[in-house]
Amino acid sequence: MWLKLVEFGKQLFNLKSQTEQNTSDIKDLQQKVHELTVVVTDLVQAVQRDRDNMSHEVEKLQLRLENALLKVERRFILGSKNAQQQDEEV
Questions:
Q1: Dihedral sign, CA of 83, 84, 89, 90?
Q2: Is the pLDDT of residue 77 over 90?
Q3: How far is the C-alpha of 76 from the C-alpha of 68, rounded, in Å?
Q4: pLDDT at 83
Q5: The dihedral of CA 23, 27, 32, 38: what is its sign?
Q6: DSSP H/E element including 34
Q7: Residue environment code for 8-26, b if the CB has 16+ CB neighbours within 10 A, otherwise e
Q8: pLDDT tens digits, residue range 24-35?
């Protein structure tokens, strides 16, 4: 009977030690999850900034292209008018 009581005490002590270790491990894991969450949040924000910047760059390029096309169109129209005026003078 005493042997069973001693064995039970050992098991109880081992369970207490394991519980303390598990509690410590859980706290460590919670800290790591928090740190990882911060890193992922920063990464998401960086990706969003890059996406926004790319969107603005595309918009700028579209405006430059439109501006260049308008300039060519204006030159073409002015060139046609100049050619017509020269034909009319002749």
A1: positive
A2: no
A3: 12
A4: 55
A5: positive
A6: helix 2-89
A7: eeeeeeeeeeeeeeeeeee
A8: 999 999 999 999
Structure tokens at 9: 């005490």
Whole-angstrom distance, CA of residue 89 vs CA of residue 83: 10
Length of the chain in terms of residues written: 90
Residue 84 has what pLDDT?
61
DSSP secondary structure code for residue 1 in this structure: -
What pLDDT is attached to residue 57? 96
Q: Which amino acid is at 49?
A: R
Q: How far apart are CA 15 and CA 9, in angstroms?
A: 10
d(CA 11, CA 19): 12
